[in-house]
Design goal:
Shape: rod-shaped
Strand order of the largest sheet: 23-24-26-27-28-29-30-31
Bound molecules: ligand C2E, magnesium ion
CATH architecture of the largest domain: Alpha-Beta Barrel
Strand content: 15-25%
Helix content: 40-55%
CATH superfamily of the largest domain: EAL domain
Number of helices: 25
Distance between the termini: 72 Å
Number of strands: 31
Number of domains: 4
CATH class of the largest domain: Alpha Beta
Length: 757
């Protein structure tokens, strides 16, 4: 149900405020512009055919004109056969000649008195009238003229009649009309082009050309004043003298304008456009209907005008502009917040939501999604995503599924007990056991989930962490990976890892420890494994497997490995100077083992250093996670061809240990300490180790046992025929100087095993 939250109320208030402000600021200018354009573009009505304006010569056009001059004009008009005459002057002082002439017209001559505020009159206030000299005419021969105007001093309305000092006068325009209106407002018909109204000058009328076609005509004798204070705006035609408004009013007097309320129009158009936008799915049809609505807004007032109604277009336009702006904004938002081909809301949309406390954000990733899409025609991509979203929505009981890039889908759901969680996602995984069928193409899918349960974090961070967890679940093949908040704290540190590693290698925070290896047959220390160490001034000592993983992720493991190689060469050179053969082992990351540059860079280093490569052993482990296995094997073969010894580290762990033995061109096999440490106490491990030693020997491998922590294990391995031992019992990893000092002290590694633990 829709509830009014404070936020929604504020938003509603803001919308209303913007709307009202827009109405106040925009409606009137739009209306002004609308009528100006409308009458400029289509001045289509002819002026009343029987009206002629006689303009009084500017030379005689003075406020207190000579009434005799008017008398002469009237005489000329009467002789020419004019039917009716209107003297559109402010005649304050008559003259005997004018009185006599008016009498001769026998009630067919009228005097026009104008309100004094033509351009500023408001709807109810028309100012003062200067009444004509009462000796000239009786009141029934006086007509009043007055107009109300808008902010821009454009005339808008007149009246059918005016009541002035208790007496009703017909308005000039209404008096001129063929079918006068009885009462109320009178809107001039501005579609009459004022320039098309026929006029003659008073000189012409009185002069030799008096045979103008004046017979039977209604003549208005008026000063077409140039004085700006007597002019006003005529829609579509700039400033015009007042007489033009009266003539336009004569044409508009057919009936009193009936106002069509703007609220009804605005509402109707609003409802129409909203109904269109919600209900009409077909773009073509929707556009046609929008076109109709706009057409109605544009031509509605003109149609109304022709039917004798008056409709203000300004408010309708403001409503339409606001609606259009809102639609454009919404479309833009959707564009930003939707995934293009599926039309589903995207992760930006999810990140902008407020997620209820206690909910989890779930990101599901579809394995090999990009491969599906590559085999599907482009127009089916959206259907594929929607089908996947439908399956998720069945399983997670939430209506809204968000679609990110690369086969990622997300939603928000209630939290569960940890025990139920895995079962829930296994259940959702089962929804995908049936293949997807998209447009005749069938796909098997596998799904992995990443979740974030940290309600205290903001939504954007949570979406990103759930995303990272889903990627981790995908790469590790797990159903579910949950984001651990601890990792977030590490994120900043991890992001600056490159610089830190470089710095650490330079300033000695990163260094190599050497753990000695004991050769049983010779009874001496015959080598050492180089193990990397990092004492960060801020984080203290960082375990190698931890930062090596980060360095691998950050693509920095190559620089680190070559640095280890350089240092291991130093150590090998140093030990081999003062004693019998001393072997140094280094560890090679699975991330590096298949890289094309590995061999060339290593070759460059050993050539530069001039080292005998047979003194160096390269330990490899976890080759199962190597991306390009054939390239890895090729690289290892080439390193071996250069003289490096090759050792399979942590033998016995991982899935493919026996495969390594058959695939890798190795010289040495290092038994993992998990077996070695248990051989004294556990028969099974003892058998595993002893038979592995035999197997390795049969394959010509040297066997190294790591993790020897006590004398019993040390001795048992000797009895089993193990070639080399490594472990705390023999010696812990220590600095090069420490190892060298002790090595020298016991006579080049000979004598009793190091028992320093
Ligand atoms: P690893 O290559 O198997 O190294 C042997 C690990 O066992 C070392 O741990 C060593 O300190 C530990 N160890 C040796 N003797 C004993 C013992 O008697 N008891 C016990 N409990 N542990 C013993 P460390 O130094 O922590 O190294 C961990 C792993 O980090 C290494 O395992 C290796 O995989 C990796 N690593 C170390 N240095 C490098 C390096 O320079 N490059 C690469 N790529 N990996 C390295
Ligand atoms: Mg190792
Ligand atoms: Mg190992």
């Amino acid at each position: 149900m829709f509830t009014f939250t404070r936020k929604k109320l504020v938003a509603l208030g803001a919308v209303v405020a913007v709307y009202l402000t827009a109405m106040i600021l925009l409606a009137a200018p739009i209306e002004q512009m609308y009528w100006n354009i409308r009458y400029f573009v289509a001045p289509n009505s002819a002026p009343p055919s029987n009206i002629i304006v006689v303009s009084v010569d500017p030379a005689t056009d003075l406020p207190d004109r000579f009434a005799d001059q008017d008398a002469k004009i009237l005489t000329a008009l009467r002789i020419a056969g004019a039917q009716t005459v209107y003297l559109d002057h402010n005649i304050r002082l008559g003259s005997p000649a004018l009185s006599a002439e008016l009498a001769r017209w026998g009630g067919r001559a009228f005097l026009v008195a104008r309100f004094d505020k033509l351009a500023t009159a408001t709807y109810n206030s028309f100012g003062q009238v200067t009444p004509p000299d009462p000796r000239l005419v009786n009141p029934s021969q006086v007509v009043l003229s007055g107009f109300s105007s808008n902010f821009w001093k454009h005339v808008e309305l007149s009246r059918c009649n005016f009541v002035y000092h208790g007496r009703s006068y017909t308005s000039f325009g209404n008096h001129l009309a063929d079918s006068p209106c009885r009462d109320g407002d009178l809107r001039p018909n501005f579609s009459i082009d004022p320039n098309s109204i026929p006029y003659l000058s008073s000189t012409d009328v009185m002069g030799a050309h008096a045979d103008k076609d004046l017979a039977g005509k209604t003549v208005i004798v008026s000063s077409l004043s140039n004085r700006t204070n007597e002019r006003a705006g005529y829609f579509g035609h700039g400033q015009k003298p007042p007489v033009f408004f009266d003539i336009a009013a004569a044409k508009g007097a057919r009936n009193t304008p009936f106002y069509v309320g703007w609220i009804e129009i605005v509402l109707a158009l609003f409802l129409l456009t909203i109904a269109i936008s919600i209900n009409v799915g077909q773009t073509g049809l929707r556009r046609t209907l929008y076109g109709l609505a706009v057409g109605l807004a544009v031509f509605g007032p003109v149609i109304c005008e022709n039917l004798g109604y008056l409709q203000s277009p300004g408010t309708t336009f403001v409503a339409m502009i606001m609606f259009g702006t809102w639609r454009i904004w919404r479309r833009w938002r959707l564009k930003v917040m939707e995934t293009g081909h599926s039309g589903l809301p995207n992760f930006v949309a999810l990140a902008s939501r407020k997620v209820p406390a206690g909910s989890v954000i779930v990101v599901a990733v579809i394995g090999r999604y990009d491969e599906f899409l590559a085999t599907l025609p482009k127009d089916l991509h959206g259907e594929c995503a929607r089908q996947i979203a439908r399956r998720f929505s069945v399983g997670c009981e939430t209506g809204e599924i968000f679609h990110g890039e690369g086969g990622h889908f997300a939603w928000v759901e209630g939290d569960r007990e940890t025990e139920d969680q895995l079962a829930h996602y296994e259940g959702m995984r089962a929804l995908f056991s049936a293949p997807l069928l998209v447009g005749g193409h069938m796909f098997d899918t596998n799904v992995h989930f990443g979740i974030d349960r940290n309600s205290q974090l903001d939504t954007l961070t949570r979406v990103n962490t759930a995303l990272a967890s889903a990627s981790e679940a995908l790469s590790s093949g797990k159903t579910l990976q949950q984001f651990e908040a601890k990792r977030l704290a590490n994120a900043a540190w991890e992001l600056s890892l490159l610089a830190r590693i470089d710095e650490g290698m330079r300033n000695g925070d990163i260094w190599l420890a050497y753990q000695p290896q004991w050769e049983y047959s010779e009874g001496r220390i015959s080598g050492a494994e180089a193990l990397i160490r990092w004492n960060d001034p801020v984080r203290g000592s960082i375990r190698p497997d931890e930062f090596i993983l980060q360095a691998e992720r950050a693509g920095r493991i190559d620089a680190l490995t070559y640095w280890v190689l350089e240092n291991a060469i130093n150590a090998a050179e140093a030990f081999n100077v003062f004693g019998p053969r001393f072997q140094v082992s280094i560890n090679l990351s699975a991330q590096l083992v298949d890289k094309p540059a590995l061999v060339s860079v290593t070759e460059e280093i050993v050539r530069r250093r001039g080292i005998d490569c047979t003194l160096l052993t390269v330990e490899v482990t976890e080759t199962a996670s190597v991306y390009n296995r054939p390239a890895a094997i090729r690289n290892l073969q080439q390193l071996r061809a250069m003289g490096f010894r090759l050792s399979i580290d942590d033998f016995g762990t991982g899935e493919a240990s026996l495969c390594y033995l058959s695939d890798l061109p190795s010289d040495e096999l290092k038994l993992d300490r998990r077996f070695v440490s248990r051989i004294v106490a556990h028969d099974r491990d003892r058998h595993i180790v002893s038979s592995t030693i035999n197997l390795a020997h049969a394959l010509g491998q040297v066997v190294v046992a790591e993790g020897i922590e006590d004398m019993a294990t040390f001795d048992m391995l000797r009895r089993m025929g193990c070639d080399i031992g490594q472990g705390y019992y023999i010696g812990r990893p220590e600095t090069f100087e420490q190892l060298r000092a002790r090595y020298m002290a016991i006579g080049n590694g000979r004598g009793k095993a190091f028992t320093t633990c």
